[in-house]
């Protein structure tokens, strides 16, 4: 088990095929990161033939308890930043309505209650999208409710909603610079 001398990233993987592989690759570039894997993400990653093999300083936490026991560490100042990437329409909808009944939604909720900033890479950002399904590209038409939920999430305190992989990468770089300048 890794000793927690250094504040950590909390990265939530949800069961969205949209930019799943790309988000996964970004986790591999981070040091001192806890990866919170939703039950759906645990299934989806196998469909994309990905393995939870990360740098040595990474810990992987699964959704196995009703009370989301791993999120207790938020109350001990373990995390400096939450990243939810990719974020399914399901997880975004729950977050927007203050529901925290899964590991993923609990990370977002407890981060909010502990004033830890969050970056959310929402999938449903436009009325028409192309997404990488396990066997090739498919068209997706997010509903009005999905788009409204993404929009509403943008009004949350300390929450940055990003809508593209390039924006996600830029926001991570910005946050890394902020953390470095904080010492
Ligand atoms: C291969 C695959 C790809 C999926 N891609 C998406 C997606 O891009 N966006 C989405 O909202 N849901 C997607 N889903 C459905 C979610 O996994 C499902 O809604 C799940 O309940 C989400 O749970 P979570 O939000 O707790 O991870 C996908 C499911 C599968 C099997």
UniProtKB/TrEMBL annotation:
<dbReference type="Pfam" id="PF02441">
    <property type="entry name" value="Flavoprotein"/>
</dbReference>
<dbReference type="InterPro" id="IPR003382">
    <property type="entry name" value="Flavoprotein"/>
</dbReference>
<dbReference type="GO" id="GO:0003824">
    <property type="term" value="F:catalytic activity"/>
</dbReference>
<protein>
    <submittedName>
        <fullName>Flavoprotein</fullName>
    </submittedName>
</protein>
<feature type="domain" description="Flavoprotein">
    <location>
        <begin position="8"/>
        <end position="155"/>
    </location>
</feature>
<dbReference type="InterPro" id="IPR036551">
    <property type="entry name" value="Flavin_trans-like"/>
</dbReference>
């Amino acid at each position: 088990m890794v000793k927690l001398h250094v504040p950590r990233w909390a990265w939530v993987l949800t069961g969205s095929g949209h930019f799943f592989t790309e988000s996964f690759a970004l986790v591999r570039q981070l040091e001192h990161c806890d990866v919170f894997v939703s039950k759906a993400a645990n299934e989806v990653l196998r469909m994309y033939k990905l393995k939870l093999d990360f740098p040595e300083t990474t810990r992987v936490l699964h959704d196995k308890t009703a009370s989301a026991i791993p999120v207790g560490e938020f109350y001990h100042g373990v995390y400096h930043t939450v990243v939810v990437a990719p974020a399914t329409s399901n997880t975004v909808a729950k977050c927007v309505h203050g529901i925290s009944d899964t590991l993923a939604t609990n990370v977002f909720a407890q981060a909010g209650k502990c004033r830890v900033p969050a970056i959310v890479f929402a999938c449903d950002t436009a009325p028409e999208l192309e997404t990488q399904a396990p066997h090739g590209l498919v068209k997706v038409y997010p509903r009005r409710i999905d788009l409204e939920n993404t929009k509403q999430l943008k009004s949350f305190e300390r929450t940055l909603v990003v809508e593209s992989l390039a924006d996600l990468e830029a926001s991570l770089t910005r946050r890394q610079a902020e953390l470095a300048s904080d010492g």
